[in-house]
Design the sequence.
């Protein structure tokens, strides 16, 4: 289990599987890099996204991670809007993006390896997404 936001600093190998209810399966292989910036960490992930039957493409995303109460981690979109909070003692969260709902559950039981599992439901989006993070050792 992590103790604070700062335990996430560094580079992580990222493996992600996305299962769309009415579309192709997708797989992302890449890295997530969390670096100190201001009051927290900048999260940047990049990798190769492969969809069944299509040519692979480069993919990336960014978030801001900030310290929360009692060791919790607040996750913001890149523009500073609130996304969700990783609560240390109950690592589940919901994000409403009307009309769709995003629910996440984190698993830190094999720390420093960890996972997230998203279920996205609604009229516009319907998929599950599982991500595995493994720390890349310092050289």
Sequence:
């Amino acid at each position: 289990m992590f103790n604070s936001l700062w335990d996430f600093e560094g580079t992580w190998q990222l493996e992600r599987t996305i299962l769309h209810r009415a579309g192709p399966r997708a797989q992302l292989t890449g890295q997530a890099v969390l670096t100190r910036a201001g009051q927290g960490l900048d999260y940047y992930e990049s990798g190769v996204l492969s969809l069944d039957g299509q040519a692979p493409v480069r993919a990336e995303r960014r978030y801001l991670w900030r310290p929360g109460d009692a060791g919790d981690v607040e996750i913001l979109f890149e523009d500073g809007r609130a996304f969700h909070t990783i609560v240390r003692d109950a690592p589940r969260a919901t994000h409403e993006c009307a009309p769709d709902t995003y629910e996440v559950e984190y698993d830190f039981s094999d720390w420093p390896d960890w996972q997230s599992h998203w279920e996205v439901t609604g009229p516009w989006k319907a998929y599950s997404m599982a991500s595995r993070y493994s720390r890349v050792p310092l050289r």
In short: The chain has a mean pLDDT of 95. Strands lie at 10-20, 25-37, 40-51, 57-67, 73-77, 82-86, 92-97, 100-107, 114-121, 127-135. The radius of gyration is 15 Å. Residues 5-135 form a domain with the Lipocalin fold (CATH 2.40.128.20).
